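Let us begin with a simple case.
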Amino acid sequence: MSEHFHFQPEDRPRLDSKFLLRWEKSQDAYVLLYPEGVIKLNTTAAEILKRCTGEATAANIATELKTLFVYNADIENSIYKFLEITHGKGWIRS
């Protein structure tokens, strides 16, 4: 997996099949489950990963989240950076 992958607006990120995103009531948060453990996600990370289904483009995800998180003017750059980091970690594929 390349840590230097840069998502383009037309890319369609999807969660890697060895990861499972789900709401964990006991933690009052979304978590990302994988064979070796669990990662508790903050709200923004969960909203991005919920949309990584392979259907929506990176641009669609950014546009949708800009309307959801209107208080963050620079969220588009943050979304692309998050996609690149999680791709490098193997959580998502393009």
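The second case is a distinct protein. As before, the sequence precedes its structure tokens.
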Amino acid sequence: MLYTIIKALHIIFMVSYFAGIFYLVRIFVYYKDTDEFAEEKKKILREQYTFMARRLWNIITVPAGIIMAVCGIVMIFLNTGLMKMPWFHLKLTFLIGLAIYHYWCWKKVLKLKELNGETIETPNIKLRQANEIATFILFLVVFTVILKSSVIEYWWQLITGFFVLVFLIMITVKLVNKNKKNK
């Protein structure tokens, strides 16, 4: 029963963490979108976006990430057999990628404060692409956990499917952005 409760908390805080990460990078994009605005409007919006990013990071994303990680570690201690499962090693590999992405987001949050309303040097298209990284990691982790040993057995089909999915998402994003520019 304890393991199931910890697992439920792990999933709940994973959802909260990813919601925070998804929205945080959107805030970076919105901040960058103000480059062409009039100075007064740009200043007001950039202050607001910086405030929102810091609050989102400190109040939702990091606490949810910590609780998610602690629950995950507790589950490993309660079920040591996980460490013997190849699919679990794959999940941990994806989580290392998530940790690197998390670090990148943290550096951007710090940079916003440091910029004090100045322009982000990262091109907008790169921020928009970076916004999709968390989505891809989420797909990889969820499919790995749900499919478990099938991931190892059918790895090439899953990788092919993943790349097709990435391609479709990228095409969809490009079409949406193209339509926005035409309006």
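The two ends are 54 Å apart (CA to CA). The CA atoms of residues 113 and 167 lie 34 Å apart.
Keep these points in mind for the review questions at the end of the chapter.
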